């Protein structure tokens, strides 16, 4: 059974920082591209960052220079460090695991709420 469990969300003031974690189980973590998505109320889910199984991370233009994703394959965990947070970063953040070999090898976490407000 595959599980992706996010943690680290919460309420933070503008300009603040949060670090999200996503712990994976039931998959060979090192083979998967790991992504972070977010969905704000009334908006579509959007890609925030992705870190491939063997390559450099890519980021949405809206978070470049502020967010950093990293992975620890020994711990089956991917992280999203979010700095200089803005109110428009408020959303539910989802962890995603995608295997490049099959369109069915895609898994999602349950999401964690991030609220940026004073």
Keywords:
single chain, 118 residues, mainly beta, seven-stranded mixed sheet, four-stranded antiparallel sheet, 50% strand, globular
How are the SSEs placed, and which strands pair?
Layout: E1 3-7, E2 10-12, E3 18-25, E4 33-39, E5 46-51, E6 58-59, E7 67-72, E8 77-82, E9 91-98, E10 106-108, E11 112-116
Parallel strand pairs: 2-11
Antiparallel strand pairs: 1-3, 3-8, 4-5, 4-9, 5-6, 7-8, 9-10, 9-11
Detail the poorly predicted runs: none
Number of alpha- plus pi-helical segments: 0
Helical content (DSSP H or I, runs of 4+): under 10%
Cα gyration radius (Å): 14 Å
Strand proportion: over 45%
Order of helices and strands: EEEEEEEEEEE
- Sheet with the most strands, sense and barrel status: 7 strands, mixed
Structure commentary:
The model has no long low-confidence stretch (mean pLDDT 96). Helix content is 0%, strand content 50%. The strands form two sheets. Strands 2, 4, 5, 6, 9, 10 and 11 form a seven-stranded mixed sheet that branches. A four-stranded antiparallel sheet has the order 1-3-8-7, with no helix packed on it. A hairpin with a 7-residue loop joins β9 and β10. It is an all-beta fold and 118 residues long. The termini are far apart. The chain is built from no helices and eleven strands.
């Amino acid at each position: 059974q595959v599980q992706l469990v996010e943690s680290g969300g919460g309420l933070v003031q503008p300009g603040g920082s949060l670090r999200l974690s996503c712990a994976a189980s039931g998959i060979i973590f090192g083979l998967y591209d790991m992504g972070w998505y977010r969905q704000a109320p009334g908006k579509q889910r959007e890609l925030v960052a992705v870190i491939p199984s063997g390559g450099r991370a890519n980021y949405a233009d809206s978070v470049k220079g502020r967010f950093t994703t990293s992975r620890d394959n020994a711990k089956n965990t991917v992280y999203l460090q979010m700095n200089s947070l803005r109110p428009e970063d408020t959303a539910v953040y989802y962890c995603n695991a995608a295997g490049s070999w099959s369109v069915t090898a895609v898994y999602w976490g349950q999401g964690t709420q991030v609220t940026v407000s004073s």
